[in-house]
Amino acid sequence: MCSPDFEKRISEIRRRMEKQNLDILFVTKPEDKYYLSGFESSNFYIVLTDKSSYMLTDFRYFEAARKKNCQGFEIIKVDSKHSIFDFLSKYDKMSIGIEEKHLTADEFKILEQIFTSEKIFFSQNIFEEQRLIKDSSEIRSIRKAAEIADYAFSNILKHIGPGMSEREIAIKMESFMKKEGASRLSFDIIAASGERSALPHGLASERIIQKGDFLTLDFGCMVDHYCSDMTRTVAIGKASDEKKSVYNTVKDAQQAALDKVKPGISTSEADKIARSIIDRAGYGECFGHGLGHGVGLEVHEAPRLSPSCHSYLREGMVVTVEPGIYIADSFGVRIEDLVVITQNGIDNLTTSNKELIII
Ligand code: GLY
Ligand code: MN
Ligand code: MN
């Protein structure tokens, strides 16, 4: 399959609606609306009933929505006289599922007046569960986004050196990725050097790279709205024995997890494989985040790979494997790959070298 099969996605969502006894689903989260229609705009709603699919938008986007020709959708213009809530009012006797994390308190109050609270159900999980398993068109976009990130990493290595600021590095990487076809970054680039490499999410600053630093680069880009996410830590000029040893511990922890991750293994078990290696090396306290997370239309989505999450990995999930050690006020290391869970193991979409690179 080359292009997204929106009709199939909608019918799967309808099956989930039926299971939850929902007559209507009110879709307000941007990624979920895109997932169902391939359309995005700043003012746009999707309403699904058991048989009909509606896209509602205002004058500014109405023609664009019509031209997009979203299969199976009826497109309805809303304005101040005929709002989305006027549209929903005709279903006032029915049960409605809402996306509880993507509705304002104001909007919720209006819905309560229309439907009464007994008929409103929090249904965000419908999309969270549906989007766990990626179809081939989604994997193709994520793979392309991961290839572009790999390309940006190999290119930036030719430029990095003492005297350059973290910000200059981030700007160059962003430009490499956009020139290669990325539409946006998955998130602001993390470029953390020296002591700042101990900050797990140290955004690029004006700090100047110095000989002897570790530099952690965590970045990703978007292709067709799908994200990539990868991290590499490199050494500038030289690396002390302690730094080399910490680096190799993280590398071994990651490799052990990559070797074992496959369908049927629980997300907490996956985390434990890497964590136990870091624990044994004496750095357990310095690995304060989970092993990974799902990636798709969002850079952080279900499932979570962490000690407290007990779901199971399944074929078609796309997750990161990203152990790290962060020694406060000293230095840090993280290595992150993006992998597809396959029938027997993984397809690693991140191909950049993991031996310690000393630039
Ligand atoms: N860039 C954030 C993360 O790797 O999860
Ligand atoms: Mn990352
Ligand atoms: Mn990540």
Structure, explained:
Helix 3 links the parallel strand 3 and strand 4 (73-77). It contains ten helices and 19 strands. The chain has two domains: 6-130, Creatine Amidinohydrolase, Chain A, domain 1, CATH 3.40.350; 136-348, Creatinase/methionine aminopeptidase superfamily (Creatine Amidinohydrolase), CATH 3.90.230.10. Strands 4-3-2-1-5-6 form a six-stranded mixed sheet, sandwiched between helices. Strands 7-10-11 form a three-stranded antiparallel sheet. The protein has a three-stranded antiparallel sheet with strand order 8-9-12, with helices on one face. The longest helix is centred in the middle third of the chain and has 21 residues, at 136-156. With 359 residues, it is an alpha+beta fold. The two termini are 42 Å apart. Helix 7 packs across helix 8 (166-179) and helix 9 (241-260) packs antiparallel against helix 10 (267-280). It binds glycine and manganese (II) ion (2 copies).
